[in-house]
Amino acid sequence: MVTEQTPLTTPEEDEPTGEPKIRATDVSVYYGDKKAIDEVSIDVHTEHVTAFIGPSGCGKSTFLRTLNRMNDTIPSARVEGTIELDGEDIYQSGMDVVQLRARVGMVFQKPNPFPKSIYENIAYGPRIHGLAQGKGELDAIVERSLQRAGLWDEVKDRIEDSGTALSGGQQQRLCIARAIAVDPEVILMDEPCSALDPIATAKIEELIDELRGRYAIVIVTHSMQQAARVSQRTAFFHLGHLVEYGHTSDIFTNPREQKTQDYITGRYG
Amino acid sequence: MSEMRAPTRTPEFEARLKQRYAAERRFKLAGLGAIAFSVAILVFLLGNMLSNGLGGFQRTVFEVPVDLSRMALSVPATDNEASAVRSLQSQGLPEIVQYAAEEALGSEGASQINSEAWRIVAQEVIADPALLRGSNTYSLPTNEDIASAYAGDGKLHLQPLANELAEQGLLHDAFDPGFMTRSDATDPQLVGIWGALKGSILTMIVTLLLAFPVGVLAALYLEEYAPRNRWTDIIEVSINNLAAVPSIIFGLLGLAVFLTLFPSFRSAPLIGGMTLALMTMPVIVISGRNAIKAVPPSIRDGALAIGASPVQVVFHHVLPLALPGILTGTIIGMARALGETAPLLLIGMRAFVATPPSGFTDNATVLPMQIFLWSDQIDRGFVERTSAAIIVLLIFLLLMNGLAIYLRNKFEKRW
Question: Staple partner for A101: which of A269, B253, B307, B400, CB 3.0–4.6 Å?
Fold first, then answer.
């Protein structure tokens, strides 16, 4: 399967302008000898939500995790090709992974708050990066992050309670607040709603839409409705290949590839 | 009709169901039996220890009135108790006590008073000099012969005397608080457990300070940093084997290595602690690795994803969450080390030590060694003293295990 790279010509009001935030070129990922991702090239733009869809095991999560080098924690994983963040190759030898992950935050499938207080969950990132001078500034960061994640009003009276005592949806918003507390440029979300009920999901989707104005957001999702609702651009993965990448409206209403058509109409997946 | 019946309603199915319930009942009974058996053994052990050992916290004493008002004794103004006792000795206190005993018990009875009995009077007088101005009754330890006779065995010819004095209320068993503050002695009436207890505490401190940091760091490195390859496999197998090595081998190692390096510290808690640390360290590594493995990977991912460095992930997240498990394993290892005798035999901690160690490099013995030494003695008084020492050791162990449970509950996080 040949990777599709031709820019779409369909006019859209939110056509990305300027240089892409992340530019991945011919990225392949191997787990040992097994090739999990085959020469994927994709551009991610700021102030956009980019959705990765595709059947289970198609490599969309693997590809997402290459964007902040979380695959480094898996000893057998190997990445080829280049991934540039603002024109700088993140896999070059001089790259500081700690700094990269501060710039490219991540939210996981299962909410994973630290078993500490709500305050400590948010304050941890700014503290280790030295983003706040003194308690007052740290308090301000915590409040601002929780407000942006739409959680402040629900937890402001119990900020010292354990983060793990919150409901699933609140925990996931806490994780989003934790990610934005270090002021990243990109937020990666790996199926952030798959463990949540529809109401909590709706809140997260609303939040993603609000956050879009500040960050480049990449979201992996199993739900095509969710991709259609929250994203501006959608990439369809199948068996480690990028089948089609374009405007969300084009992918869902007028896909160019038969495989995309089959997947979104539910013929397989 | 019959072929229409659902497969779960056939007689065969019901027979199988009955068998299943019967198997379940048998399993429950077997489990209950096992628990009852272990409880019975525990109750027997504790009951036996307590019934034998409570006598060990007592000693046989004479009630002797001593009038000190007409003696020109004075307590020197010094904080050093030993020199005050020496001063009272030179002022003739032993003779005064002996004379008072002859007055009260008759010459035959007074010959059975313990030669160190005057020290009791000396200590009480030093604690309260006002006693010098009047007559008081003191409980003075007997010697071992009449103590045996009073208990109903030992020398037969002393038994009438013992019975007579007991009937007059002059001879009886009394609680001996000094057992917890004295050290080893040749006379069972005069022994105490404090020297061995302090030796055990000092040895355990050395063991903990060496084994805990080394064990935890090794566990953290192996779990969080070390690549999985043949070398780490070899190290893992070696550590597991180390934990299974008989303790006497560690004693030989301590003898060969530590006593060659520090020959002047023979039978010191420092060397004992170092030897026991070798034995405890693998236990801490193994339990520590299991505790670290149990920390959910999602916590590590969460911390890494906001830009924590691997060291920060380990010390801010993994270690605090693994700490309850590590502490439990550590205290189990320490409890094993506390009860260990064999390796300490080899490095010379079986010496007769009559004064409690004042530091890590003094001669010392430990509780299990004291039990071993006393159980070797032939005097009847040592039998009860041995049981009493066992009770002290068991209480020390219970306190350590209680501490483990307390620490685990205190640091345990729920999510």
Answer: B307
DSSP-derived 3-state class of residue A183: coil
Instruction: Give contacts of B 5-34 with A, CB under 8 A.
Output: none
CATH number at residue B230: 1.10.3720.10
Does residue B40 lie within any of the structural domains? no
pLDDT for the residue B106: 83
Task: Please say whether the beta carbons of A66 and A83 come within 8 A.
Answer: yes
B345, two tokens: 């035999």
User: How many CB pairs below 8 A link A and B?
Assistant: 70
B307: closest CA of chain A, how far (Å)? 5
- Note down the domain range covering B102: 58-175
Which region holds residue A54: left if phi is over 0, alpha if psi is between -120 and 50, else beta? Answer: left
**Distance, CA of B94 to CA of B115 (rounded, Å):** 8
Answer yes or no: is B90 within a domain: yes
Helix, strand, coil tally for chain A in percent (to 5): 40, 25, 40
Flag whether pLDDT at B242 surpasses 70: yes
Predicted complex ipTM: 0.86
Ramachandran quadrant class, A241 (left: phi over 0; alpha: psi -120 to 50; beta: rest):
beta
> Per the domain annotation, does B1 fall within a domain?
no
Q: Name the pLDDT band for A4 (thresholds 50, 70, 90).
A: very low
CB contact under 8 A, B302 and A114: yes
Residues of chain A with pLDDT > 90: what percent?
Answer: 52
Mutual angle of helices B194-220 and B319-338, in 10-degree steps: 140
Would you state the pLDDT for residue B4?
62
Mean pLDDT taken over chain A: 87
Q: What is the pLDDT of residues A37-96, one digit of tens each?
A: 999 999 999 888 999 998 888 889 999 999 999 988 888 889 999 999 998 899 988 888
CA distance A200 to A167: 9
Helix-, strand-, coil-residue percentages of chain B, each rounded to 5: 70, 5, 25
Q: Do B170 and B223 sit in the same domain of this protein? A: no
Rounded Cα distance, B334 and B340, in Å:
10
Backbone angles phi, psi at B208, to 5 degrees: -65, -45
Q: Where are the alpha helices (DSSP H) in B192-341?
A: 194-220, 230-244, 247-261, 269-293, 297-305, 310-312, 319-338
Give this prediction's pTM: 0.81
Domain annotation for chain A: domains and CATH numbers: 22-264 (3.40.50.300)
Burial of A194 (0-12, 13-18, 19+ CB in 10 A): middle
Where does residue B169 fall: left (phi above 0), alpha (psi -120 to 50 degrees), or beta otherwise? left
Say yes or no: B347 and B211 in one domain: yes
